[in-house]
Amino acid sequence: MIMYDFYQIIGQLIFIAGIIIVLLLSLSLILGKILIRQDRLIFPKLLLFTIDIFYGPFKKFSENLGLEEKIVDQIGVEVRNKVNKKAFDNSEPEERLLILPHCLRHADCEAKLDSSGLKCTDCNRCVIGPLKKKAENMGYKVFIIPGSTFLKKIAEKNRFKAVLGVACYQDLNLAMMKLSKFSCQGVPLLKDGCINTKVDYNEVLEKMGAATPKKKINGVSCNSKPDKKSYI
């Protein structure tokens, strides 16, 4: 009888915990959609807690509701961008890293890969060269990497306070989670893939502090050279 009562209590506690988690996920999803649609950040700590602790279940929950697969990662990136913006802007360019994905490279890229990432030859056949040049002129350290393994090595070997990253929403969100003790900003790719992906060139410049914010920004393909007026 005692054991029966014990298991009954445990079952009730699990049921209550399940309801609380569902309510938490629902509330976080609502707050996240408000952030994305209205650019209003409400209860950022709650959102980050939900995404960091319940990342997998949160994504599954969203998918079961018929929402886009990327929405949880999108919420995570947007929250961290807003939460970290002031600290990022207050850091010096020399204290920042710019992390670019190697998938932005041109299909005929001849750059070689070493232990720190892709070594850009500045051929200007993709957007990496102009971004790298602009960032380095400002004082950034720039890395072009193929995956999270390189990110870990870079974080261990370099001193920095802030990071600006470019990647697909999922990789960007997970990377910003890992680097949460730093002031991170992220720019999502406009087109995912393994090569010839796209990023909004002007948005990256804005995050870097190299361009004046604009109301509407056009996407720039990595396999087309950006207009020189936009980065000189």
What does this structure look like?
The chain is of the alpha/beta class and 232 residues long. The chain folds into two domains: 68 residues, no CATH class; 150 residues, no CATH class. Helix content is 50%, strand content 14%. The chain contains eight helices and eight strands; from the N terminus they run ααααβββαβαβαββαβ. It has a four-stranded parallel β-sheet, sandwiched between helices. A two-stranded antiparallel sheet has the order 2-3. Strands 7-8 form a two-stranded antiparallel ribbon. Helix 2 packs across helix 4 and helix 4 crosses helix 7. The N and C termini lie far apart (79 Å). The C terminus is likely disordered.
What's the order of the H and E elements? HHHHEEEHEHEHEEHE
- Estimate the strand proportion: 5-15%
Stretches with pLDDT under 50, minimum 5 residues: 215-232
**Structurally, how many domains make up the residues?**
2
Write a brief caption for the model.
The chain is an alpha/beta fold and 232 residues long. The protein contains eight helices and eight strands.
SSE arrangement:
Layout: H1 2-38, H2 44-53, H3 55-64, H4 71-90, E1 96-101, E2 112-114, E3 117-119, H5 128-138, E4 141-145, H6 148-157, E5 162-167, H7 169-178, E6 183-188, E7 198-199, H8 201-208, E8 220-221
Parallel strand pairs: 1-4, 1-5, 5-6
Antiparallel strand pairs: 2-3, 7-8
Helix pairs in contact: 1-4, 2-4, 4-7
What structural keywords apply?
4-stranded parallel beta sheet, alpha/beta, 232 residues, disordered C terminus, 8 helices
